[in-house]
Amino acid sequence: MDSVNLEVLRRAAAWIEAGIPATLATVVDTWGSSPRPRGALLAINADGQLVGSVSGGCIEDDLLLRLRDARPKLPEVVTYGVTAEQTRRFGLPCGGTLHLVLEPLHAGSLIAEALAEVERGALVARRLHLADGRAELLAEVPDAAVVFDGVTLVATFGPRWRMLIIGAGQLAHYLASFALALDYQVTICEPREEYRDSWRVPGVTLSPAMPDDMVLAMRVDRRTVIVAVTHDPKLDDLALIDALKADAFYVGAIGSAANARARRGRLQQFDLDEAALDRLHGPVGLPLGSKTPPEIALAILADVTARRNGIELVAGTARALPPSSCEMPWA
Description:
Layout: H1 4-18, E1 22-31, E2 41-45, E3 50-52, H2 58-69, E4 76-80, H3 84-90, E5 97-104, H4 111-119, E6 124-129, E7 135-138, E8 146-148, E9 152-157, E10 161-166, H5 170-181, E11 184-189, H6 193-196, E12 205-207, H7 211-217, E13 224-228, H8 233-245, E14 250-253, H9 257-267, H10 274-278, E15 280-281, H11 293-308
Parallel strand pairs: 10-11, 10-13, 11-12, 13-14, 14-15
Antiparallel strand pairs: 1-2, 1-5, 2-3, 4-5, 6-7, 6-9, 8-9
Helix pairs in contact: 1-4, 5-11, 7-8
């Protein structure tokens, strides 16, 4: 699976190469509640085909009509949600406002060049000059996904977050696939040859290095997520020791509550203080009652995503629902 913006870049590059007129819409500013974040992309071609999203659907419908009637010759700024009537018409949450830049695409837009950088795992920034539609790729990438001053638009493409997964078993397949869809740059550390031979997820870096060496080699930072999923203390603990000493955003390991207590006891023997040990998420993920590998992967990514968005979900007391309340009405 790919991130939404990556698919937009791919389709836009293909339309440019085929000579099909197309327009790229970029969310450059939001106020209040908005359906999509800054940097979200939508591409619409002259045949009315679209890829990506800037809202729940109503704004896309309006853009299709707008571009069918008159396609811009130069980049322009459009705003949705300023009035109460627009809010009702376009289905924006209460008070939500979006500013979009509509950009007519051409060979000089450098979409294919930006895409090539992203597909090799690099971050790339592209500056668009609204006055003449000129684009350029930048050597330095800003921290923000979008920098817009009304004259130029600098948009950053590519994985801003990294995920290191220790182990290449079945759970790692789902975890890596979900993480790719969320725009992570994913690395799998798997020193066991038999597991590496069965790896089948494209777009992931597969390394045979030992976990502790991999953590050090990656130069872990505050945009790095590390999850150990081998169930083998000889491998998981190696990664966790160095990960908890580094400045990782999130460090987790699978296993039951009893396994987590035993793991904490082992890690205490390796010069890790209580503050470092408290950073370890184990059992990892939200308590969704997950049993299967895809459910566990979902629980892990849900927890990481919430924390990335500044939300800590407190489980409280879990209560099993009666069987009838879990059944679908058509079951």
